[in-house]
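quick one, 219 residues, struct below
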Amino acid sequence: MTAKWKTNGYDAPTAATVGATRFTNHQDGLETALSDFAGTADPDDGAGVAWGASEVGFMWWDTTNQRYGTGDDLGGVWKRWEKTGAASYDWRVLNGVSWIEVSPSTNALSLGAQDLIAFTDLDLTTTTSSYAVRALVQVEITDTLGVGAGVYAEFRKNGVTTDARTRRIYPQVMAIPTMAQFWVDLDSSRVMEYAVAPYSDTGAGFALRIDVLAYQERL
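---
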């Protein structure tokens, strides 16, 4: 519903508000509180009165990016009005996500005897839904040529180059598989990237398998 409490066109009652108008103001407030604010317009824009301590706890379902709206199409987000500093207040985003199991798990990639592989796209459109934002992958690697600090497979969201958002897995013993599970973010086309740094760039001895166990959607 349209937010009707301390928003543009819907003033809060004051001591000077006459009875009939005051009853309407209270009804507007109750209806808004029962349904929360919902829509693309920021409720903190009304009546020329800035929000502050009196509004702490108000909730707003921001539909700007809802699936059937505009924006990034990742879904709406809950926002709660909170104190953010000594004398400042603002909306805090409370993202909600769903956890969807892929059952049975789905093999997305299976490579044997590889040498050096630069970051390569892996399309998960057939494994996840059209609203997936990250995938839980199970990775198994084996290097038959050797192990060391510079031997690994790495994974990241397509197009992201920040090292802190790259996941790596290192073989522990030569010719013995190593397995790990972790989340990897997906881009809007549901693509992640993988790369391989083997023991020897001139020899093919690195095996890599990726299975998808689950994924998350932003509600």
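The mean pLDDT is 85.
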